[in-house]
């Protein structure tokens, strides 16, 4: 029997050689960058790829965040007046993360009411970053370190999201939050958040410090980033309309009706 098959992309992936071939009849992918990656690396013909958005991100668009945001700030002990800077960790060399955090803290220290929250990746231990922060001289209120928290609610109420190449950058952009991509590796960004206008990029400690201040305080830069994020929404609307699940269900129905 020839049973129709569908693969649904679970997260953004870079156009790297580790992307494995896809053997399904149809691939439902997150965005147009992913579509190109599936064709380039996944051995999929262009006509097999359908851009649907990501079903689990429908929540970002369709939910009411105000009460959840208030709860997460109360959980953190952060007032509504404080500027919340969220640094999302990743599996990159700890020496790079230390340099990033030092620069972020220097930039945030110059902004009245700025508070840093280090959001630890679910696969990493919290103590790893608590120990790392003990090695960094900190003036004023120390950063918070959290892992198990309502992260989408945290994103909805943060004033700036900082990460290296995590999917959380796209999640923050979908929610209209300012995003800063930090990359001290000397290598190109794995995902084109900066190139696509979803984020600003910082590739040295000095640039990280400047960008943090600018994204928190400079209204011109904030508005320019909002404008480029809006332009991206027009190019990849499936990520922003909250209907990815409907599109995937429609594909399943279409495939199930194939003779």
Would you kindly provide a written description of the structure presented here, covering whatever features stand out?
There is one protein chain. The protein has ten helices and nine strands. The relative contact order is 0.16. Strands 6-5-4-7-8-9 form a six-stranded parallel β-sheet, with helices on both faces. It has a three-stranded parallel β-sheet with strand order 1-2-3, with helices on both faces. The protein has helices at 32-41, 58-62, 66-76, 94-109, 126-134, 151-157, 168-174, 205-217, 219-235, 244-256, and strands at residues 6-8, 26-29, 49-51, 83-88, 114-119, 144-146, 160-163, 179-182, 200-202. It is globular, with a radius of gyration of 20 Å. Helix 3 packs across helix 6 (151-157) and helix 4 crosses helix 8 (205-217). The protein is an alpha/beta fold.
Beta-strand segment tally:
9
Helix content: 40-55%
Main pleated sheet: 6 strands, parallel
The oligomeric status of these chains comes to single chain
Read across the widest sheet, the strand sequence of neighbours is 6-5-4-7-8-9
Alpha carbon gyration radius: 20 Å
* N to C succession of SSEs: EEHEHHEHEHEHEHEEHHH
Stretches with pLDDT under 50, minimum 5 residues: none
By helix and strand content, what is the structural category?
A: alpha/beta
Cα separation of the termini: 11 Å
Mean pLDDT, to the nearest integer, reads: 93
Strand content: 5-15%
Number of helices: 10
Global morphology: globular
């Amino acid at each position: 029997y020839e049973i129709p098959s569908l693969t649904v992309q679970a997260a953004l992936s870079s156009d790297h050689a580790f992307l494995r071939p896809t053997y399904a009849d149809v691939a439902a992918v997150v965005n147009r960058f992913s579509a190109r990656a599936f064709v380039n690396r996944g051995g999929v013909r262009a006509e097999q790829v359908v851009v649907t958005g990501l079903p689990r991100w429908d929540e970002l668009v369709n939910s009411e965040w105000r009460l959840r945001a208030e709860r997460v700030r109360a959980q953190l002990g952060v007032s509504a007046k404080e500027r919340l800077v969220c640094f999302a960790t990743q599996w990159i060399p700890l020496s790079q993360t230390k340099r990033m955090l030092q620069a972020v803290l220097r930039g945030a220290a110059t902004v009245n009411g700025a508070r840093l929250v280090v959001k630890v990746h679910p696969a990493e231990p919290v103590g790893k970053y608590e120990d790392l922060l003990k090695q960094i001289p900190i003036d004023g209120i120390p950063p918070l370190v959290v892992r198990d928290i309502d992260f989408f609610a945290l994103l909805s109420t943060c004033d700036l999201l900082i990460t290296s190449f995590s999917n959380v950058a796209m999640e923050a952009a979908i929610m209209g939050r300012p995003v800063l991509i930090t990359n001290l590796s000397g290598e190109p960004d794995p995902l084109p958040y900066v190139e696509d206008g979803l984020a600003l990029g910082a590739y040295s400690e000095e640039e990280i410090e400047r960008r943090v201040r600018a994204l928190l305080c400079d209204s011109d830069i904030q508005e320019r980033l909002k404008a480029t994020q809006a332009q991206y929404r027009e190019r990849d609307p499936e990520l922003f309309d909250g209907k990815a699940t409907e599109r995937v269900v429609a594909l399943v129905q279409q495939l199930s009706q194939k003779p």
